[in-house]
TrEMBL record:
Belongs to the glycosyl hydrolase 1 family. It holds the Pfam family Glyco_hydro_1. This is Beta-glucosidase. InterPro entries: GH (IPR017853), Glyco_hydro_1 (IPR001360). GO terms for molecular function: beta-glucosidase activity.
Length: 556
């Protein structure tokens, strides 16, 4: 006999017992009184009228100067009205045919009621409409503009379908949504003193309200790769430009948003003094939010890191290479943030490295300006010393392994792949190293808590499968079930304070020029823009029903 089980929707609206910051009307005076508020409409031919440095003509010329051509235009440019999710879409899939090895050991493990669990996304990868509603150009907007690639001008169209997408998250019972706001939608020209786009301010205000009305807690990433073309990280005034933008959204939405991510994965930038610029900007933002705005929410910065595992655990050189890799990946920015310590010697003593020690003044300013550790531990990898040794490589800046000077591989010393492979080279089902990932961060940087801000698995060959086969995404479910089971063990057996997890992503994304790597708990039909829940969405929710029944009830 088969009986249907249905997803449990969230209770709505979300109750906010105490605002996380004063309402905008009470703090608007914190913003520069001379700011110009406007909106732009792109007319590509209007590039020669003399209407000022930031006029409509200058806006058109700014876009034209990038020399990007978008193959397709958005099929709709107004907000789609939501419709009820049919009950037939909310039926749970059949029971899992496989379970994590350690499942029986964690059956009695529970999570606290304030555990943060939900889904994540990034604006450039799902919004579409890059040149609409007054948005300015970002450094990502040239990706995929070559023939045969996806340019994100037309992707999941979340900018216009957000009401329907939030409805779908609420109906399946996902309580937290992390989304990013594009800097250049708020400040089209990117720089301090330039006009603010009122249409974007209204849009994201409604997005926040829509989430809360459906029982979903919003988490906002202030910068997720889509840096303005006019403001590189190397700009000595980077912090000023960044705060000019960030203050606009924090003053307006801060009363309803409990968690903020300042910058996404800055440690993937080249190792130079730009990393210090980013740390200073983050610390400046933290001080302004806490001390001037009076915000009581929490601020973090999130980092990329697939833990380095020594290829040969008995080889001191491989162990040293793994530690060196972690120094470059996490130590540069997290030593100052969490420990008040200098950039690791392994980095600073690399001949020719273009990064200076952080001054005592900046070190004091940066230290402690973060409320919890946040990272994207998709998988792990093996690391070994390079041929000829680390020192020989480090002294030769033309070596292709420089400056980290370690060899990374997904193959163990015995020849076996680290785990079941995805369609990208950095995500594997490799649960044997999950606890080591959490323990490394917990014991090295000693944070108050750890948030998994992204984790996911794009199954190989999904783009060639029929829809019903894509829906039954067993590998993705196994990835999440294994990851979360080992996370429970890290919490209960190792004493690591993991405060939450956000699955990447809530719908399929443009993975920087391609739709073929199908991350996402829902499919996206790029002709009709219809969404379909995958079994991994149901199983992800079900894990927390089993271990964190009360975690969806409100703010942490």
């Amino acid at each position: 006999m088969t009986s249907n089980r249905y997803a449990t929707p969230l209770k709505s609206p979300l109750a906010i017992p105490t605002p996380w910051a004063p309402e905008f009307s009470k703090v608007s005076s914190l913003l520069d009184a001379h700011i110009t508020y406007t909106t732009y409409s792109l007319a590509s031919e209007a590039t020669t009228r003399n209407d000022g440095q930031y006029g409509q003509s200058a806006y058109a010329a700014f876009w034209a100067s990038q020399n990007w051509t978008y193959t397709d235009s958005p099929p709709f440019t107004t907000t789609v009205s939501p419709t009820p999710v049919p009950r037939s879409e909310l039926v749970f899939p059949p029971p899992l045919p496989v379970e994590p090895v350690d499942k029986n050991e964690t059956n009695g493990f529970t999570l606290p009621s304030n555990f943060v669990w939900g889904v994540a996304s990034s604006a450039w990868q799902i919004e579409g409409g890059l040149q609409f509603d007054g948005r300015g150009p970002s450094v990502e907007d040239g990706i995929g503009t070559n023939p045969g690639a996806n340019d994100s001008n037309v992707d999941a169209m979340f900018y216009y379908t957000y009401k329907q997408d939030i409805e779908r998250l609420a109906e399946i019972g996902i309580p937290y949504l992390c989304f990013s706001i594009p800097w250049t939608r708020i400040v089209p020209f990117g720089v301090k003193g330039s006009p603010i786009n009122t249409r974007a301010l209204d849009h994201y205000d409604d997005l926040v309200n829509e989430a809360i009305a459906h029982g979903i807690t919003p988490i906002i990433t202030i910068l997720h790769y889509d840096l303005p073309v006019s403001v590189p990280y190397s700009d000595p005034n980077f912090s000023d430009h960044y705060l000019y933008y960030a203050k606009q959204i924090m003053t307006r939405y801060g009363d309803r948003v409990p968690y903020w991510v300042s910058i996404n994965e800055p440690n993937l930038q080249p190792v130079d003094n730009s990393l210090t610029n980013i740390l200073v900007a983050h610390a400046d933002l933290y001080d302004w939010y806490k001390n001037e705005l009076g915000g009581t929410g929490q601020i973090t910065m999130k980092f990329a890191n697939n833990l380095a595992i020594p290829l040969d655990a008995n080889n001191p050189e491989d162990i040293a290479a793994s530690l060196r890799y972690q120094d470059f990946s996490l130590g540069i920015m997290n030593n100052p943030l969490f420990l008040g310590a200098q950039i690791p010697d392994s980095v600073l003593k690399t001949p020719g490295i273009q990064i200076d020690p952080i001054s005592k003044v900046n070190l004091s300013h940066i230290h402690g300006k973060i409320d919890f550790f946040s990272f994207d531990p998709y998988s792990s990898q093996y690391v070994s010393a390079p041929p000829g040794g680390v020192e020989a490589c480090a002294s030769n800046s033309s070596n292709p392994l420089w400056p980290t000077c370690v060899v990374t591989t997904n193959d163990a010393a015995n020849g076996w792949l680290i785990g079941d492979a995805s369609s990208v080279g950095y995500s594997f089902i490799a649960s044997q190293y999950r606890r080591a990932q959490f323990n490394y961060v917990w014991n090295t940087f000693k944070p108050s808590g750890i948030l998994v801000a992204e984790f996911g698995f794009p199954t190989e060959g999904d783009q060639y499968k029929a829809l019903d086969a894509q829906r039954y995404d067993l590998e993705r479910t196994v990835y999440y079930q294994d990851f979360l089971t080992e996370m429970l063990r890290a919490i209960h057996e190792d004493g690591v304070n993991v405060i939450g997890t956000l699955a990447w992503a809530f719908i399929e994304t443009n993975e920087f020029g391609t739709f073929d790597s199908h991350y996402g708990l829902q499919t996206v039909n790029h002709t009709t823009f219809e969404r379909t829940y995958k079994r991994s969405a149901f199983d992800y929710v079900d894990f927390f029903h089993q271990h964190a029944e009360k975690s969806a009830s409100g703010y942490a």
